Amino acid sequence: MKVLSALMKALSNMSARELNLWAELLINILVALYYFPIAFRLMQKDEWILATGAMIGLAISTIILAIVVGIAISIPICIWKKPVKKDERDYQFSARGSMIAYAALFFFVMLIIGQAMFEGLCPGIASKLGLITNPLIIAHLLLLSLMFSSTIKSVVQLFFYRRGY
Amino acid sequence: MGKTSIRNNIRRLRFEAKEMTQAELAEKVGVTRQTLNAIEAAKYSPTLELAFKIAKVFGVPLDAVFQYE
What we know:
The complex is a heterodimer of chains A (165) and B (69). By secondary structure, chain A is mostly helical. Chain A folds into two domains: 1-84, no CATH class; 86-165. Chain A has helices at residues 2-13, 16-43, 52-80, 88-121, 125-129, 135-163. Chain B is mainly alpha-helical and 69 residues long. Chain B is built from five helices and two strands. Chain B has helices at residues 10-16, 22-29, 33-40, 48-58, 62-65, and strands spanning 6-8, 66-68. In chain B, strands 1-2 form a two-stranded antiparallel ribbon. The radius of gyration of chain B is 11 Å and the shape is globular. Classes of the chains: A mainly alpha (165), B mainly alpha (69). Chain A binds chain B through residues 13-15, 17-18, 84-85, 87-90, 160-161, 163-165, and chain B through 1-2, 30-35, 37-38, 41, 43-44, 46-47, 50.
């Protein structure tokens, strides 16, 4: 009961913007936890092309999940907290979040592209080093990087909101 | 974003201005109550423009609201 009341107190002290960031983070994590384990399991099949139908189904169900969870979380926030215009602190924290998320995204994209190019530069060595050359897996790793950087952006902003409050 | 080296008298000025609430002051200067709370607690340094707006609400010069240590 004490934990619940402390949680309610913390939530009521947050701005609508901060609550939306928590919602964004939750949706990101839920979508990633739902999509990627199934996607990578499907791709591990030898005839991964046979799993294409399942992949499309997975992509559609993930989009629906994200929309449904997004609406389910956003409606109570909109009712509870009056949406307000972003102020200078919001913009500053958003810029810091974007900057750090961009650096992370750049690092992961360069890492994935770099290892994929290795096969072209040194033919035959990719399989020995365990590098990934499957285009579908590379595409998913890029998608994972995108989701990861988006999560980093939310986490960085929330960190500053919590520290600066 | 720990404590900044900019001190402020917003709490006292609010009290002297008929106990103006943080929410009222925040609305007058166009920020959220949370931002104003962070400024008041010296955890966030406002821009020059916002600092002038706060001083203007109380009708005092800028250095009566903010002091750099």
